[in-house]
Amino acid sequence: MDQLFIDTLRPHLRYLTPDQDLRPEDRLRDLGLNSMQAIDLVFDLEDNCGVTLPDEQLTDANFETAGALWQAVENVRSADDRLNTPADAR
Fold this sequence. Notes:
single chain; mainly alpha; 3 helices
């Protein structure tokens, strides 16, 4: 997980203390993320991380842990990179 992702996620996790590190295995609901905040989080991730999360990525499984959400963001980034790379450069 990169710092931009963590900095984007942190304000949505009301039970994550300022001195507490966010770990991939941390359960987002346990840290205070609810369904309404998840919607705001998606918008923030899209704005801050430069990705567009497709509807099929907006699953309970992808919002289970910080690591699962990070992987969803990375999957979208990878797909975007493949689409934006010229075929002869691949």
